[in-house]
Amino acid sequence: MKAGDKLFDKIDNVIGGCKIGVVVFSPLYCDSYFCLHELALMMDLKRKVIPICCDAKPSQLRLVHDGTMSPEEVMRFRSALEEAKHTVGLDFDSLKGLACVDCWHCLTDTVVHESEEQAVLEAEDAIAATERSSQQHRKTEEAAAPRALRPSPSG
């Protein structure tokens, strides 16, 4: 990002273009409007979310409404938090030190696996779309062909 960029526009564009989001929940996560906005956007866009609980348990994640957010934002952020709490993620305890390496290995393996699955699904969707387009093209050609050139029903 560079000076003059609109922060929310950049965040929204990047999240809109991603397929997988990694969310690091910390004890102060819910104090950050930006973090909550990003999580809610990922959930709204139905992105795959991989939560990492860093020194925090999902049950500890609570939105405290201090009057600075609109009722719609409060509802949206709470809903996103609840959905994230019920998503299998990774745990990291900073007091254990080396567990961080294990966590990052697990995270990279998960992201690579999810990316591969996503690529397969996209390829299958592209093949299905191509087949539908080809069928539609054949139907259009058949409908446009002069009657004399059409095969008779009897053969």
Automatic annotation (TrEMBL):
Organism of derivation = Salvia splendens
Mention one GO biological process in which this protein takes part, according to its record.
Answer: signal transduction
Task: Output the Pfam families linked to this UniProt entry.
Answer: TIR (PF01582)
User: Which protein are we looking at?
Assistant: TIR domain-containing protein
Q: Where are the compositionally biased (Low complexity) regions?
A: 145-155
Write down the InterPro entries for this protein, in alphabetical order: TIR_dom, Toll_tir_struct_dom_sf
Query: Where is the region Disordered?
Result: 124-155
TIR domain sequence ranges: 1-111
